[in-house]
From TrEMBL:
UniProt entry tagged with the keyword Transferase: yes
InterPro entries per UniProt: NT_sf, PolA_pol_head_dom, PolyA_RNA-bd, tRNA_CCA-adding_enzyme
Molecular function, one GO term: metal ion binding
Membrane-spanning segments: none
Family to which the UniProt record says this protein belongs: Belongs to the tRNA nucleotidyltransferase/poly(A) polymerase family.
Protein name: Uncharacterized protein
Signal peptide residue numbers: none
Amino acid sequence: MTVLLVGGAVRDLLLKRPFHERDWVVVGASPEAMLARGFQRVGKDFPVFLHPMTHEEYALARTERKTAAGHQGFEFHATPEVTLEQDLSRRDFTINAMAIDRDGQLHDPYQGHQALMDRVLRPVSAAFLEDPLRLIRAARFMAQLPGFRAAPELIDVIAQMRPELKHLSVERLWKEATKAFTGDARVFFQTLNEWQLDQALALPTFWLPAAASDGTMDGQLASWNAAAPEPLAWPGAWRAPNATLDLMADARAWARTPELRPALMLRTGVIKNTPRWQRLAGWIDDPALAPKIARARTISAADFADRHQGPALGQALNSAWLSALAGE
């Protein structure tokens, strides 16, 4: 049994980029051998196991065969006879089809290291065509890896794969988008546009800022949405989390209607310091608001109870909060 580090961790190690997850491939082992060593199986039919101590994923070397539409329409063949080269052949790009063994030796049957040095994304084999998400992943890698370009072999299959994009779930698309925002996400969307993948995905028209931005994905999307001529529609189409969509809407309102900012602060929960307000406050990052907020939070219904009751009390309290938040 041979255990090797594989995939993205090897790529990032060679690029001297930080990485947080390690995937391992196990050659020459059976499911029974893995279970006997204390590994825990992930799923009934998938040849992936969790290490008993580190809980990292260890996958048996396997081959795949496309049997149906969708990313689950694959038949796996995982036996001790499957070689490392066979396992690596099913991967998307040559830069992800490398492995390092326990002795530190690089196994690179598809010249992935050379592709790294050339900064090129090249499909490993014709199996690339079997999952249309790999086109989206290509755009994502272009965003994460500055200076990388698509190999001619990749460009040649775009038109052939484009019609299959309609089978992708929005959940898988959103996951790739979140990863793109760890790099220059503009490149991700520019690539989708250049390859005409946005049309195939029925994406609403999207707008991109002129310059790259820093910060979290939510923060960047909030800034994009605040600056765009029209509200960005694609995050909703890709079922972004409600918290993300709320922040985008709140940031746009903050940027475009300054006169309504006190009301927006109340609506997002500034008095009770709700999570929604905290997200907006983190995006605003304006220390000048602190004394106004502190003053508003000292105002309570008890201050008006001797003069107002019922709805009138609520109106008086709301008016006092608005005045305090406006600095009056």
